[in-house]
Amino acid sequence: MLDPATLFAFTITCLVLAVVPGPNVTVIIATALARGPVAGLAVVAGTQVGILSMIFVVAIGFDALVGFMGWAFDWIKLFGALYLIYLGYKMLRSTGKLGKGEAASQESLMKLAMRGFLILWSNPKTLLFFGAFIPQFVTSGEPAFPQLMLLGLIFFAVTAVTDSIYAILAGSAGKALSQKRVKFLSRVSGSILMAGGVWLATQQKT
User: Fold this and answer.
1) Exposure on the CB side of residue 139, measured as CA atoms within 13 A
2) Could you tell me which residues come within 8 angstroms of residue 9 by beta carbon, excluding any fewer than 6 positions away?
3) Are 6 and 141 contacting, i.e. CB atoms less than 8 angstroms apart?
4) Scanning 107, 120, 163, 184, which has its CA 20 to 30 A from the CA of 45?
5) Domain locations in the chain as residue ranges
6) Among the listed residues 177, 185, 14, the one whose alpha carbon sits nearest the alpha carbon of residue 91
7) What pTM did the predictor assign?
8) In whole angstroms, what is the distance from residue 59 CA to residue 53 CA?
């Protein structure tokens, strides 16, 4: 199974990815700016349910694929490492812009949560991301499904914390999320992610 060093490296990588606002976080921030932190947290709840369901789908699919084509394991991990480098490059080019609050909507918290769930699943890049990122830390020669689920739950926990912080900050102190600060954060995180992707690519078995 996964060793503590791998789990630690995975957790740190999750944190680096989670702190840089993406499409989901942009919606969370925009909602919190318009209606307050509780509304933002409702969207977070929806996106987190979406993350859990998507991780389950990826775990089943990856396990089945490797079971049928064992040779695909290293190629999938190599593709994932290259994808992480690409994501890091995009972070380096980020402008740091965040969503702006619009007129407050009267949607219920349940509808806001459903919106978060649908936004997550409506973006095929999210599924591609999970399929490329999480398998990087799976140990070959051992059952993939339990490893993927454990890693997925760690990612779920990290994003739940960081997204909730964004919702609270945007809802109660929106000025703390300045474009300049987000841009700096994107630059640092992008550099770390690209370096990590290069390292992962060099660790692939030949």
Assistant:
1) 13
2) 137
3) no
4) 184
5) 4-202
6) 185
7) 0.71
8) 10
Reading the block at residue 175, the tokens are 């000025």
Residue (of 83, 82, 98) closest to 20 by Cα position: 98
Q: What is the DSSP string of 190-203?
A: HHHHHHHHHHHHHT
136 or 66: whose pLDDT is higher? Answer: 136
Phi, psi of 25 (to 5 degrees): -65, -35
Inter-residue contact 34 to 104 (CB < 8 Å): yes
Please tell me which residue, 57 or 95, carries the higher pLDDT value.
57
Does residue 11 contact residue 158 with C-beta atoms inside 8 Å?
yes
Say how far residue 178 (Cα) sits from the centre of its chain.
21
Measure the CA–CA gap between 121 and 105, rounded to whole angstroms. 22
As given in the structure block, the two tokens for residue 94 are 């980020």
Cβ-defined contacts of 9-13 (< 8 Å, 24+): 9/137, 10/137, 10/151, 10/154, 11/154, 11/158, 13/133, 13/193, 13/196
Which tokens go with 135?
A: 């398998």
The secondary structure of residue 142, as a DSSP letter, is: S
Element holding 53 (H helix, E strand): helix 37-68
Residue 186 binned pLDDT confidence (cut-offs 50, 70, 90): low
User: Which of 44, 5, 9 lies closest to 24, judged by CA?
Assistant: 44
